[in-house]
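Hi everyone,

Forwarding the result from last night's run.
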Amino acid sequence: MSKEWFEEENFWINYAPIMFDDARWAEAPAVAEKVKEIAGLKEGDSVLDCGCGLGRISVELAILGLDVTGIDIIQSELDAAKESAEAEGVPLKLINQDLRYFKTDKEYDCSINLYTSFGYCDTIEEDMEILKNMCAPVKKGGTFILECVSRETSIMYFTPGEEFERAGFKVRTEFSVVGAWEGLNSRWTLYPLTKGTEQIDTSEEKPVVDHQFVQRLYPASFLRDKLIEFGFSEAYVWGDYDGSPYNEKAQTMVVIGRK
C-alpha cells in the first residue's frame, strides 16, 4: 500500500487549526452525548475512536465515564489528545497505527469514525479495508457509527469554494467534482494575515501552504450494505445525529450498524 498525504505530520500541524475551528470544538460534548445515546452505552462501556485526531470526541466520551481508546496515524495529534485528557483528568488509551493495517483481538461495545475522516485512500479496496478494520472489533450486540460527507450530501451542498479568516490565516478553499461524482477535489490555500490588515490580495500574496487532495464520495446505501457484509445484523442511515431521515433535508450522513 502506497504512502498517502494524510500520513504527513506537517499537513496536520498546518491544517488542524483550520479544520477544527471553535464551532467544531464547541459541538463535541453534544456529539459525544449522541454517540452514547445511539449506541446505548453505559458508564464503563468501551469505545474505539478510529481516526481520533486531537481527541475532540474521545476526551468528551471519556468525560462521560466511558472506557475510550483512540487510534490515529499521526503521533503529534495523539500527543495533543493525551494532553487534553490529562487536563480534563480523564483516562484515555491511545494507539499510533494506520487503520489500513489495524488488527486487534480486543472487542469494543462501540466503534466510531466521525467528522469526515473516511474516503481518502487511493483505492476503494484500501478504503474498504479501513472500514472492515473499524467494524471488526465491535462485539456482539455492539454498535458502529460512521459520520461522513456522502455523495448525496456533497451534491446537495456543493460550493465551488469560499474565503475566510481563521487561526491567523486568510483561507481560500476551492472544490471541484472528480469523475461522475466519484470524488471531491479540495484545495486549501493559506495566506498569512498581516497584523492590522483586513483584506489580502491573494492574487499577489504568496501562500504559506497550498494543499490539494481528493475525498472519495460513497452513496449512503453502499456503505450501509457494506456493514451488513462486514458482519452487522442491521444497518441504517440517518440525516443527522438526531435520527432525522436521510433525505433531501439531510445535514450529514450518519451510518449505524448493530451486531
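The mean pLDDT is 90.

Cheers,
N.
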